[in-house]
TrEMBL record:
Organism of derivation: Candidatus Fimimorpha faecalis
Any coiled-coil regions, as ranges: none
Pfam family, one: Glycos_transf_2
Protein name, entry field: Glycosyltransferase family 2 protein
Superkingdom per UniProt: Bacteria
Keyword annotations: Glycosyltransferase, Transferase
GO molecular-function term, one example from the UniProt record: glycosyltransferase activity
Domain Glycosyltransferase 2-like stretches: 6-135
């Protein structure tokens, strides 16, 4: 018989964390599961640790492959996974012992296609933040998944930006779209052929989460934390966020992926989600400017400016800027949006450079 739950774990150079991750899974109060660990070309002892656990427990399948990124690693495991439900964990994190039991009880009792839950942020072995789901209800069905859940994950809307300019606290705050904070019905993934986009270095979770939610008929929410997200300065996302040109490429690739996803959802759900993420394009112009104005060896200020403009001048970004009406409100907050609106790109970039020199930290 197939296991109730398949846990998919892509790993890359996490030798100092992987044992704690796997031990937390093997210590679960619910034991009807199997695990697929995909070693994505690790160069440390990660692969050896995977093999040790694979020999120790027959429920663990280890796949060694060349380094192609987390999306390809997850897709490799999805093709093999046999569980009724899927969980996607990261090899440097860990979970509470009751995690699988309570998720399975909830998703089966509510006959849901997915269940969302909270997580802890852990640094140096200490929980520094607790993130519970922002959703108020414990269950969403039918159209309300598209109107109440999807907007919390896919991105920022024009309305969100307007509320932010007008001083509403947390107007731009969104749910963390990471896959490790949800359990998904396996058949939903298989029937709809939902996969990760290999070209995405960032945002692959956003697209995957949005797509499976758009295919779901019922989604459960548990207002409890089960997952420990471990902060480390060698993680893939940490390294990525230190490279402004990687961020620039990531933003452009994600723009394309969001557009493709929007068109797919229009076809199978007859629902247009564009309005939920179009504001992200405008906010990304400002966010990218802060990244690109960082001092970087080997590149001139003007070269960085020209490369920043390649994003601003993307056809879809230009359309978003054109259709966005800057509201009245906080005049300081509205300035960058007016500069974008009236194509004062050089002035905006200069202003942000000055803010960088003053050690101003941009916060959404």
């Amino acid at each position: 018989m197939n296991p109730k739950i398949s846990i998919i774990i892509p790993v890359y150079n996490v030798e100092n964390y992987l044992e704690k991750c796997l031990d937390s899974i093997l210590a679960q109060t619910f034991q009807d599961f199997n695990v697929y660990i995909v070693d994505d070309g690790s160069t440390d002892k990660t692969g050896d640790i995977c093999d040790e656990y694979g020999k120790k427990d027959q429920r663990i399948t280890v796949i060694h492959k060349k380094n192609e990124g987390v999306s390809v690693a997850r897709n490799t495991a999805i093709e093999l996974a046999t569980g009724d439900y899927f969980l996607f964990f990261d090899g440097d994190d860990h979970v509470r012992p009751e995690c699988l039991e309570e998720l399975y009880e909830t998703i089966t009792y509510q006959k849901a296609d997915a269940v969302l839950y909270g997580y802890y942020l852990e640094k140096d072995g200490v929980v520094v933040q607790t993130h519970l789901p922002q959703m108020k209800k414990s269950q969403y069905e039918g159209k309300e998944i598209m109107t109440d859940l999807v907007p919390r994950f896919i991105g920022v809307s024009f309305r969100d930006i307007k509320r932010w300019i007008q001083g509403e606290k947390d107007a731009l705050k969104k749910e963390n779209t990471a896959l490790w904070r949800s359990m998904v019905k396996g058949d939903l993934i298989r029937r709809n052929n939902i996969r990760f986009k290999p070209q995405l270095r960032v945002g692959e979770d956003t697209c995957f989460t949005t797509e499976y939610l758009s295919c779901a008929k019922r989604c459960a929410v548990i207002h409890k934390c089960y997952y420990y997200l471990v902060v480390r300065n060698t993680s893939t996302i940490f390294v990525y966020e230190k490279d402004p040109y990687a961020i620039l490429k990531g933003k452009i690739d994600l723009l394309t992926a969001r557009r493709e996803l929007t068109e797919r959802i229009k076809i199978h759900r007859s629902f247009d989600i564009e309005k939920y993420w179009y504001g992200t394009l405008i906010m990304s112009c400002i966010q990218l400017a802060f990244f690109m104005t960082r001092k970087e060896k080997g590149r001139s200020w003007m070269e960085n400016y020209r490369n920043w403009k390649t994003y601003v001048e993307q056809k879809e970004v230009q359309n978003a800027i054109k259709t966005f009406n800057v509201p009245s409100g906080n005049k300081i907050k509205a300035i960058p949006f007016y500069l974008l609106k009236y194509k004062k790109y050089y002035t905006l970039y200069c202003c942000i450079t000055i803010l960088q020199l003053c050690h101003y930290e941009f916060k959404r």
